[in-house]
Structure formats: C-alpha cells, structure tokens
Amino acid sequence: MTRLAWLLLLFASAARAAISLTDDAGATLRFERPAARIVSLAPHITETLFAAGAGGKIVGAVDYSDHPEAARKIPRIGGYSKLDLEAILALRPDLAIGWLSGNSPAHVEKLRAAGIPVFLVQPSRIEDVAKNLERFGQLAGTGEAAQRAASEFRTRLAALHERHAARPKVRVFYQIWNQPLMTIGGGQIISDVIALCGGENVFAELKALAPQVSVEAVLAADPEVIIASGMGEARPEWLDAWRKWTGLTAVKRDNLFFIPPDLLQRPTPRLIEGAARLCEQLETARGKRPDARR
User: Fold this and answer.
1) Looking at residue 231, what is its pLDDT?
2) Fewer C-beta within 10 Å: the chain N or C terminus?
3) Is the domain of 253 the same as that of 281?
C-alpha cells in the first residue's frame, strides 16, 4: 500500500469514528471517539443507556437510578434537580447526558464551563424512546446493541398502534398526584401513549408538561377513565377518593385504573409495557359502555 493510500484509509477511518449529533436543545456536539466515561443526569437516561448496551460506561448516576439492578451500584451524583457538581467532576467524565426539562440550566452550564460536554434529551413522543436508544448507542459506541433494542421497541409499538389506535375514542384523565392535583399536558409523552391507545387526554390543551388542575376542572371534563400513578408499585389510596363524585362517568362505570409510575412516567423502553397496560384498560372501559354489547 502506498503512503498516500494509507493516509486516505486513515482519514476515512477517522471520519467514520467521528461522531456529530444534535441534541434536543438544538446544540450539535462533536466527538472524535465514543464516550468512555458517562454521567447520567436522570433516572430514565440511566435506564435507557443500559438498554442501549452502554451501562458499563456509566461512571455516575443520579438518585433513583434503580433499573436495571446493576444501576443501583453506580456512584451517585445527587438528584436530577440538584446535581452534586463536585462529585461529577471527581469522576472525570467525558460526557454527561442530561434531561432538558428536569436538570437545572445553571448546573448544565457549570458542567460545560468545566469542559464536560452535555447532551440534552427531552422525549415527548413515544418514538423518541427508540431515537434516544440509537443516539445513546452512537455516543457510547454501542450502536449494534442500541439498534437491536430500538428495533424491538418499534416492532412492539407498531403492534399496539395497529391494534388500538383506530378504536373508539375514550376520554382520559391521567393523575400524577393528588396534593396538589397534577395531570399531564399535551406535550407530555404519556399524552402520546393515550392517543396511541385510542384515548383523548382531557387536558391536552394545557402547555405545561405536568400542570396543576382543580377538582372542579376534572368534574367539568367528565372523563370516562381516570388513570393514576403514585410513588411505587402499589395502587394509591387517593385514586378511590374520586368515588365520592358519583356523577363522574369514570366512577359510575368503575373505570379507576392504576399503572406503576416507572412504566409510564419514565420515558424508557419499559414505556411500551405501560402503554400495553393502558391500552387494555381503555379496552375494558369500552366494554362497559351501555351499547357495548349491541
């Protein structure tokens, strides 16, 4: 091989190895090689990195990064809303992956000022989960594993869409919390899940991702289904507090449902499991309509 041919091959290999990606804040990050030391600034980012085959490259993660089990052993760097900047710097990361709407902009800027590239994500549609799997795979150099995970996710998503998207509409109130009473706006990824299942988020017109609403607003919306989350695997007691409002369609038809928050409120590959549960709950509600057997 001539020296010129060798140099051309070298430059071509370098070009293939170089990474250029635009994050959800519109910033384009460029890297000469995949990241080897990653800090995850949100629990859902930690989980998605593992699913993309990059769990072994995470050197620091925020509190509540608890899935999969191996994530619990990663050194902690504070909470997603209150990062421990000194702990992050001590880990010498070559990349931080952050949550656009969850991490403090001031903390993100301090990390960048310290020379740590920060790639920000904001999944707002179901497809963004697969997209992030692919992007994380690119950033970490685990593209093959990430692509497999993204392909599996898309296959399951397509199956749910085919089965449920064209079903008769069901009006849904999704309750995040009770005091204060909180729901989801139209830009929140759970609203997209509701639409996937043939449902309508009764507060889709609200722009905030997790707006506060009043009991009176819920009563006026008269949802056919109420779906609650909570703090863990157990159905929250406050879900059944709606039963005192006997005029609510959701109460009259006993359509008060629960889905563990980790399956819907974390935009990770497990979102497809939460979506499957929600779709089945809406099917149950359709079956309780007065004309369902006609």
Assistant:
1) 76
2) C
3) yes
Residue span of the structural domain in which 52 resides: 12-149
Render the burial of 156-188: b for 16+ CB within 10 Å, e for the rest: ebeebbeebeeeeebbbbbbbbeeebbbbbbbb
- Residue 96, judged by CB atoms within 10 A of its CB (0-12, 13-18, 19+), counts as buried
Residue 161 lies in a domain: no
pLDDT at 195 over 70: yes
Structure tokens at 135: 């992007």
- Under a CB-based contact definition with an 8 Å cutoff, are residues 110 and 86 in contact? no
User: Per this entry, what is the length of the chain?
Assistant: 294
Q: How far is the C-alpha of 13 from the C-alpha of 80, rounded, in Å?
A: 37
Quote the tokens at residue 124.
Answer: 């707002």
What is the reported pLDDT for 1? 55
The pair of three-digit structure tokens given for residue 26, joined into one six-digit string: 């519109």
Q: Name the pTM for this structure.
A: 0.90
What percent of the chain stands above pLDDT 70? 94
Task: Give Dmax over CA atoms of the chain in angstroms.
Answer: 84
**Residues 29, 32, 38, 44: is their CA dihedral positive or negative?**
positive
- Whether residues 171 and 142 fall in one domain: no
Indicate whether 97 and 40 sit together in one domain: yes
| Least confidently predicted of 120-124, 210-214, 288-292 | 288-292
262 lies in the same domain as 179: yes
